[in-house]
């Protein structure tokens, strides 16, 4: 069994000007668990920032960075047991980033929707509470995706899902009953009013080099304006 030499991998990728490679590796010494390893060579500015932060942390602990750590810090590594027809090296990084965005989404559910705040009640009441909360969350996501789609296509800007969610929570509390009972015309009017409000108060600030969940989704999947997946983008 041969262990990976990250210094050698970095030198080889730089020499042949390759920014990503795939290897078949084993996770155990008995060589029974084979997985696919995706190796991405990071840009120098990203690497230098990683090393800068790592050096600061090491100094606080009275340590020094090893050569192996410095070499590994130049790379992003992902392992998967998925087959090539399910996940390829071109989309693996995006898929992982999307996974992190999903985790952030659940954190928003906790911080804004308070789904973890539950009183001690009977089983039936608890189930009713959870399902109703999830119904409202899914409904709000539909509104957010439609609003985001309209903002992108008609005005060339993006929606801040976090800012918009905070407003939606109070809007649903006051207007949900009227929107549901009022039918299509009432729902359309609610969307248009929310779009107008979002153009003034819910614009997403673009971070340099950063992606948010909508951008990642549109890069991996083809979506309708309401966020429904149509197909996987090639």
Which class of secondary structure composition applies to the elements? mainly alpha
What general outline do the C-alpha atoms trace? elongated
- Low-pLDDT parts are none
* Strand segment count: 5
Rg from alpha-carbon coordinates? 23 Å
The average pLDDT is 85
Helix content: 55-70%
Count of folded domains: 2
Q: In this structure, how is the largest beta sheet organized? A: 3 strands, antiparallel
Summarize the helix and strand pattern as letters.
HEEHHEHHHHEE
Q: What spatial order of strands do you see in the largest sheet?
A: 1-2-3
Give the N-terminus to C-terminus distance in angstroms.
Answer: 36 Å
Q: How many helices in DSSP terms? A: 7
Quote the beta fraction: 5-15%
What this model shows, in words?
The chain is mostly helical and 234 residues long. It has two domains: 6-87, no CATH class; 92-232, no CATH class. The protein is 59% helix and 12% strand. It contains seven helices and five strands. It has helices at 6-15, 44-60, 67-72, 89-111, 123-155, 161-201, 213-220, and strands at 20-26, 34-41, 75-80, 221-223, 229-232. The strands form two sheets. A three-stranded antiparallel sheet has the order 1-2-3. A two-stranded antiparallel sheet has the order 4-5. Strand 4 (221-223) and strand 5 (229-232) form a beta hairpin. Helix 5 (123-155) packs parallel to helix 6 (161-201). It is elongated.
């Amino acid at each position: 069994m041969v262990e990976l030499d990250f210094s050698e991998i970095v030198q080889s990728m730089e020499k042949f000007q390759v920014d990503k490679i795939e290897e078949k590796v084993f996770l155990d010494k008995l060589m029974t668990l084979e997985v696919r390893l995706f190796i991405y060579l990071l840009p120098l500015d990203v690497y230098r920032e990683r090393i800068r932060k790592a050096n600061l942390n090491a100094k606080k602990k009275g340590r020094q960075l090893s050569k192996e750590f410095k070499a590994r810090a130049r790379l992003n590594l992902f392992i998967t047991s998925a087959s090539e027809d399910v996940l390829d090296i071109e989309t693996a990084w995006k898929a992982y980033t999307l996974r992190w965005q999903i985790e952030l989404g659940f954190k928003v559910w906790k911080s804004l929707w308070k789904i973890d705040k539950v009183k001690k009640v009977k089983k039936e009441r608890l189930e009713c509470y959870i399902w109703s909360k999830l119904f409202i969350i899914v409904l709000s996501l539909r509104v957010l995706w439609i609003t985001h789609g309209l903002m992108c296509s008609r005005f060339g800007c993006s929606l801040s899902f976090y800012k918009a969610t905070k407003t939606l929570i109070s809007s649903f509390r006051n207007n949900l009953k009227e929107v549901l009972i009022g039918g299509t015309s009432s729902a359309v009017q609610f969307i248009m009013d929310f779009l107008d409000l979002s153009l003034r108060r819910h614009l997403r600030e673009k971070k340099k080099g950063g992606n948010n969940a909508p951008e990642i989704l549109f890069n991996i999947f083809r979506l309708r304006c309401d966020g429904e997946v149509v197909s996987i983008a090639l």
